[in-house]
Write a structure and sequence with these properties.
This protein has 332 residues and is an alpha/beta fold. It has ten helices and twelve strands. It folds into two domains: 248 residues, Alpha-Beta Complex (Spore Coat Polysaccharide Biosynthesis Protein SpsA, Chain A); 56 residues, no CATH class. The longest helix is centred in the C-terminal third of the chain and has 21 residues. It is globular. 33% of the residues are buried.
Length: 332
């Protein structure tokens, strides 16, 4: 709700917000509808430095449409006038698949020039959208993905990311530009060597998606941004960064990264799995060798620590990198 409050404070003349409920199990879509009708307030007041981004609340009600995933697909060609669209996914197929539902809807039904992927655990400054649009409109280069300056929600003077990250193909590790640093304006300049724009905020011209295609749903979570950026780069699209577009991010809230045991292994599983998938797809033979050596060292660590179930599951990835996370404690 807080993210929506901050978005609807934008004075930009024309935009539509699409919210995809990726099969959440906490009645999120019902709470969001109640918020849009003015029947429910924010459940949490932002920290003092950021209260102005959501207070006072925007006027309600906000006209909206609610679709199931199937209904959104079947209404092809019908233009909606509402500024807020809710789409209920039939089941959770991951970060890329959830965003692709919204991207397909926007491409088919909205007369838009730009698309903005934004995490639900963010707050945005009221001029962020205008800054992103103006940046692309004044550049002559073929910009495909545009990043914003992202600060930590709970440490609002520290950077999570200055637009995006660099990617080391030998270790399959992405390093976010400026991560953890106090923001004193040191990254208020172009960052020409970015390899990817992080998924918390990706601003795109519609032409990029029409040319490159949607996000790759094979990854479920992690490495989607690298894949998208690499596919775009091979078609001549560039990455860029607008430091005047400012966003605050509750990092980890979307996937529950602060949880322990099963959820931490879930994250580890897909991180290691997708290193293999991405490197096999885009890396050189020598890159692949290095990644597999690192993977074998990780397996040895699991065995040494007595994490036999994790060792068994991760070992299966060597032979089937496309396998999905085993929700039952059985591995065939």
């Amino acid at each position: 709700m807080a993210c929506l409050e901050s978005l609807f404070k934008h004075a930009y003349p024309s935009f539509t917000v699409i919210v995809v409920d990726n099969d959440s199990q906490n009645q999120s879509i019902e709470h969001l509808q109640a918020w849009a009708l003015g029947k429910e307030r924010l459940s949490e007041t932002p920290i003092a430095h950021l209260v102005h981004l959501v207070m006072p609340p925007v006027p309600k009600p906000i006209a909206f449409k609610l679709y199931s995933e199937r209904e959104a697909e079947l209404t092809f060609g019908k233009i909606d006038d509402e500024r807020l669209i809710f789409i209920q996914s039939s089941h959770n197929r991951g970060f890329a698949a959830g965003n692709n539902i919204a991207l397909r809807y926007a491409l088919q039904k909205l007369n838009c020039d730009y698309l903005w992927i934004l995490n639900n655990d963010t707050l945005v400054m009221p001029d962020t959208l205008r800054m992103l649009v103006e940046h692309l409109e004044k550049r002559d280069e073929k910009i495909g993905m545009l990043g914003a300056k992202i600060r930590y929600y709970h440490m609002p003077s520290r950077l999570q990311c200055a637009g995006g990250a660099t990617y080391n193909r030998w270790t399959a590790h992405a390093q976010m530009r400026g991560n953890g640093e106090l923001d004193s304006g040191q990254y208020d300049c172009p960052q020409p060597d970015l390899d990817l724009i992080i998924g918390a905020s990706i601003f795109l011209p519609k032409a990029f998606v029409q040319d490159v295609g949607l996000m790759n749903e094979d990854y479920f979570i992690y490495f989607e941004e690298q894949d998208w950026a690499e596919r775009g780069r091979r078609k001549g699209w560039l990455l860029d960064y607008e430091w005047k577009a400012l966003i605050y991010h509750k990092e980890g809230a979307t996937i529950g990264a602060n949880a322990h045991t099963q959820s931490s292994f879930f994250s580890q599983f897909y991180w290691l799995r997708n290193k293999l998938l991405f490197t096999r797809k885009f890396g050189s033979p020598l890159n692949i060798v290095f990644i597999y050596i690192g993977f074998l060292l990780n397996l040895a660590k699991r065995l040494f620590k007595g994490e036999f179930y994790r060792f068994k599951v991760l070992s299966c990835l060597l032979f089937n990198p496309s396998m999905t996370f085993p929700h039952e404690k059985t591995v065939s």
